[in-house]
Every structure is written in C-alpha cells, then in structure tokens.
Amino acid sequence: MIAGNKAYVKIQNDRRSEIVDFNVSLSGFTAKSKKALSACSFNPKAREITPEDKARLREISSELKKLQSEKTSILSKY
C-alpha cells in the first residue's frame, strides 16, 4: 500500500435497493496500519486454491455439463 492512495467501498443492503459509495483516504498509514488491514482481509494477497476445492470445482463442472445436456434433451422434445 502506498501513502496517498484511496480505498473505494460500495455498500448495499440485502435487497440491493440502497447503495452507498465511500472514499477513504489511506494517506499516513504506517506499517502497523498495513498489518491491521491485512488482518481484516482488506486487499488480501492471492492464495493458492486447495486440492479439495479443485476437486469440488471439477465435480460442479461435471454436474453442470450433465444438467445442461439434460436441459437440451428436454427442450428438443418441444
């Protein structure tokens, strides 16, 4: 994080009917501030995907293909 940057935050309610934009100046932040932001997952570093997540994503992809095929088959009847 470089001093003088700004964080832009968009907040919305659960029905997405009200949206509020905030601009927060990050000037004057120190190394301690940077650690605090990292602890809060603000601007987190990229993480490697776990093997379990990769396997689950493959399963989901396979299911989606199967369902798409089934959908196409049903729609082709009409």
* N/C terminus separation: 58 Å
Count the DSSP helices.
Answer: 2
> What overall form do the CA principal axes indicate?
elongated
Structural class: alpha+beta
Strand content: 15-25%
Give the domain tally.
2
Residues in helix, %: 40-55%
Summarize the structure.
The protein has 2 domains: 1-46, no CATH class; 48-78. It has 2 helices and 2 strands, in the order E-E-H-H. The chain has helices at 31-39, 51-76; strands spanning 6-12, 19-25.
What do you see in this structure?
There is one protein chain. The protein has helices spanning 31-39, 51-76, and strands at 6-12, 19-25. It is an alpha+beta fold. It has two domains: 1-46, no CATH class; 48-78. It has a two-stranded antiparallel sheet. A hairpin with a 6-residue loop joins β1 and β2. The longest helix is centred in the last third of the chain and has 26 residues, at 51-76. Keywords: Plasmid.
Describe the secondary structure blueprint for this structure.
Layout: E1 6-12, E2 19-25, H1 31-39, H2 51-76
Antiparallel strand pairs: 1-2
Give a quick set of tags describing it.
78 residues; alpha+beta; 2 domains; 2 strands; 45% helix; 18% strand
